[in-house]
Specification:
The protein is mainly alpha-helical. Among the domains are: about 35 residues, no CATH class; about 55 residues, no CATH class; about 35 residues. The chain is built from nine helices and no strands. The longest helix is centred in the last third of the chain and has 16 residues. It is globular and about 50 Å long.
Length: about 190
């Protein structure tokens, strides 16, 4: 990745992109690749790049196996809710097959119900629905750690330093490893 930025294959601006700026740059034709969540597909299909892009799984790296990280659009009930029963009924409705099918077909949100991926409207709206189902099925939860924010920060700060040329990729990995181990020793 660092050599791609250094060579000009990728814009130096990518080191500053968050999720939405990267999506907008892709839709504006300023990037040939984008890594994003499924919702970006529906938005791309409503933009100037409609029908001019495809979805592909993340590459598999030797020795790393195949798995994405679970994220999502979670529904929770606050411990302070004045109407937990009503909140639970709303969650049941929002996670019903009918609503999951609509959310997948209209907004390209990844369903949690397996049957939803086989719905004709979902298959039509998401030509990559079989690959999305496989990705969700084999995804892994983020590591559970009381210092997860520090671990995540060590990774993204050091990757950014390597990408922006402030540090070699090898030194960035060593630095991230040191910071992660230091964070793990605090609990």
């Amino acid at each position: 990745m660092a050599s791609g930025i250094k060579s000009g294959a990728a814009s130096k601006a990518v080191t500053t992109y968050m999720e939405e700026p990267s999506r907008r740059a892709f839709e504006a034709g300023k990037a040939v690749l984008m890594r994003n969540w499924p919702y970006a597909y529906a938005l791309g299909e409503m933009s100037n790049i409609k029908g001019k892009f495809k979805v592909a799984p993340l590459p598999q790296f030797q020795g790393a196996g195949k798995a994405g990280i679970l994220g999502g659009h979670d529904l929770v009930i606050s411990a302070y809710s004045k109407n937990p029963k009503g909140a639970l009924l709303l969650i049941h409705y929002l996670t019903s097959e009918k609503i999951e099918t609509m959310d997948a077909a209209k907004y390209s949100l990844a369903p949690v119900l397996n049957a939803t991926y086989d719905e004709p409207s979902v298959k039509k709206a998401l030509p990559f629905s079989a690959q999305l189902k496989q990705a969700v099925t084999q995804a892994k939860a983020r590591p559970v750690s009381p210092v997860y924010p520090q671990i995540s920060e060590a990774i993204y700060n050091n990757v950014n330093k390597a990408l922006s040329g402030q540090m070699s990729p090898q030194d960035a990995l060593k630095n991230a490893n040191t910071q992660i181990n230091k964070a793990l020793q605090t609990f």
